[in-house]
Each structure stands twice: as C-alpha cells, then as structure tokens.
Design brief:
The protein is of the alpha+beta class and 116 residues long. The chain contains 2 helices and 6 strands. The strands form 2 sheets. Strands 2-5-1-6 form a 4-stranded antiparallel beta sheet, covered by helices on one side. It has a two-stranded antiparallel sheet with strand order 3-4. The chain is flat, with a radius of gyration of 16 Å. 14% of the residues are buried.
Length: 116
Amino acid sequence: MRYMLLIYSREGEMSAEEEKAVAQTHHAVMNEATQRGIFHGAEPLMPTSTATTVRHEDGKVLITDGPFAETKEQLAGYYILDCENLDEVIEWASKIPTACCGREGSVEIRPIRRMA
C-alpha cells in the first residue's frame, strides 16, 4: 500500500548547520527507501506565506492568501512510500526529522486511496 507521510513542523529560521543536518538526514532516509524499492517521492514545501487557499461557497470560488488554517505547526513537506503495512510505515516515519526552531514536529501517515 502506498502511504503519504505529511511532515509538520514550526516555521522559522534555522542556522546553516541545523539546515545541513536536517537535509543530510532527509537524504539518508530517501536513499535508504530508494534502495529498498519503496520510495515514490519526497519534497519540501515553501513557507505558508506563499500559500493560496481556494474554497467554494454558494457556487462561488473564494481565494485567500495563506494556509487553510492557522496552526502552531505547518505542513513542511511529504514523502510517498510503498510499504507492506502500517507498522512498516511507522518505522519509516520515525526516521524523518521534524525539528525546527528548537521544537519537534510530527509526521501524519495517510494511506493513499486508489482512484476508481
């Protein structure tokens, strides 16, 4: 089953050393997942200040600048992995770095539903 791993962390500036360490960890996870043949993609996202949200209301399209919701943690990026089961994808999620601005974030795991 393919899973999307959504990485949530706090936005903010990191030192060059912190940024390099995080990038190295992500590259290590992506390389290992590629070697095992389960890697289907991973990308970081731009800050929420670049987001645009589109809604439908009373038959009209409403467009607002910014993210869908104001939260303490923001969606920072994602991975798509093809894992045998939830236990395996949890093991992978535990390897993904989420720290930013001195705080740990989280990884939300969502199975990807096939389109009919």
